[in-house]
Amino acid sequence: MTSNDPSTLLVVDDDSLILQVMKLCLPAPDYHVITADSASKGLQLFAEHKPDAVLLDIQLPDQSGLAALHEFRELDRRVPVIMMTGHGTAETAIGAMSGGAFEYVTKPFEPDDILPVIDSALETSRMARKPAVLPSETQGDADDSSTDRVLGDCQAMVEVFRSIGRVAARDVAVLILGETGTGKEVVARAIYQHSNRRDQLFHAINCAAIPENLLESELFGHEKGAFTGADQRHVGKFEVCNGGTLFLDEIGDMSPMMQTKLLRVLQEKEFERVGGTKTIKSDVRIIAATNRDVEAAILDNSFRSDLYYRLNEYTISLPPLRERGEDIKIMAEYFFARFAKTLGKEYVSIAPETMASLKLHSWPGNVRELQGVIKQTLLKASGPVIVPAFLPKTFSPLSDDGLTKPANVGTWQENLRNWASTLLEDGSHNIAADIHDAVDREILPEILRATQGNVSAASSRLGMSRPTLRSRLKQLGLGSGAEKNG
Ligand SMILES: Nc1ncnc2c1ncn2[C@@H]1O[C@H](COP(=O)(O)OP(=O)(O)OP(=O)(O)O)[C@@H](O)[C@H]1O
């Protein structure tokens, strides 16, 4: 969940048990589940509530689920619809995927099977529908959590906004470059939302988070029996998203085999499912992003130059936050005001010394790190003016030179307990994650150093999968430079 607003899920099934179970599995305040026992009631609720995603049974008393899927899509194609199917109707459900269903699940299912699918559908819906508002269109309150305002006044960001305006309506591939947390996803959403395909599907795939064989099937689909465990045909994103937009995040982490397959679909607009012979045509606009230095990757042969030129019909480079000058002030003021409202904290202004500290920081995690620091600061703040003492201890410029550190007494367990108590007193609601992050910030670079930056070796020593390690490094703003391919 990335927003404080609950996600609305419409569940349409004539089996009252399913409706009850889904309500229990998806509790408030994160979710708001509305239910219908027929297609007609579902369509009525869809129009009234504009849900973020739909869970739809394939057999309904008044209409087939497939016909209902078609009607939901007529109302709003951007809302992901997950089909629920019994064993006997799996083939129909697979057909529904070509009809634009987001995914299908076979009954009976365990909550653990369906919840990740629902969350992924809700995330897709957020990306497609939550407006990414550019400065030229900025209106409304700072506390309006239903939109993402994309801020920036420095020359480089003004150029980014011009580029979005120029490229959005042209049906070309776009490559977005920038360090972690610089806003690549929000720019991708702005391009899609200003494009001629804005009413069609938008799907996002994080290429670094999915192992190669699964990524292939996720993008291109597979036939039944294509590999061990492929007990049903699967329809991939290129097929589902026909007519829409696919956001391929972390494209720089794609394997050579996947790069070749992607190049073909970009050039020829056709592909085959894994294990299949039928050629499938697809018209999908690609927006790709990476935080890697692609030109260096081309030089060391880990990225295909022909794919780069194909993706690079238009490139947008996002500057790191530390190079955006006064934009740090504009963003800090905006996020303090916005988060103060959501967290129910008093906020009037930022003291000049605090602003000076914010400007001095190097922001390896860029805008995402700034947002995190501002939330932590607000939780600690006890007055309307944000003074430096409210900044997180790990952030304070003094915390590195020993001046503010207590004498190093006690065992590490005692220090850890003291730290947990301090976070408790500071009012944090994220204690486990804060401590976990701090531990990972120390150990991950250490193990990467010991393995000469080899991610495979480091992940094997850490007992973590490679994608997990990469995404963890990225989350912590440690993604650039520390690691090498491997
Ligand atoms: N210019 C901006 N103005 C306001 N908010 C921004 C701006 N750029 C990014 N953000 C916010 O910062 C957060 C991180 O941005 P985003 O997820 O788009 O970064 P990213 O470059 O895709 O990160 P990653 O490489 O880690 O996937 C989001 O909440 C986004 O809305």
Which key terms come to mind for this protein?
486 residues; binds adenosine-5'-triphosphate; alpha/beta; 5-stranded parallel β-sheet
Fold and architecture overview:
This protein is of the alpha/beta class and 486 residues long. It has helices at 16-25, 39-49, 65-75, 90-98, 111-129, 155-167, 184-193, 212-220, 237-240, 256-268, 294-299, 305-311, 327-343, 352-360, 366-380, 412-425, 431-450, 455-462, 466-475, and strands at residues 7-12, 31-36, 53-57, 81-85, 103-106, 132-133, 148-149, 174-177, 202-206, 245-249, 270-272, 279-281, 285-290, 314-317, 349-350, 385-386. The strands form 5 sheets. It has a 5-stranded parallel β-sheet with strand order 2-1-3-4-5, sandwiched between helices. Helix 3 (65-75) links the parallel strand 3 (53-57) and strand 4. Residues 396-409 have low confidence and may be disordered. The protein binds adenosine-5'-triphosphate. Residues 148-152, 178, 180-186, 249, 291, 331, 367-368, 371, 474 line the site of adenosine-5'-triphosphate.
How much of the sequence is in beta strands? Answer: 5-15%
Strand order of the largest sheet: 2-1-3-4-5
**Shape, please?**
globular
**Strand count:** 16
By helix and strand content, what is the structural category?
alpha/beta
Subcellular location: Cytoplasm
Main location: cytoplasm
Keywords: Activator, ATP-binding, Cytoplasm, DNA-binding, Nitrogen fixation, Nucleotide-binding, Phosphoprotein, Repressor, Transcription, Transcription regulation, Two-component regulatory system
Pfam family, one: AAA_lid_14
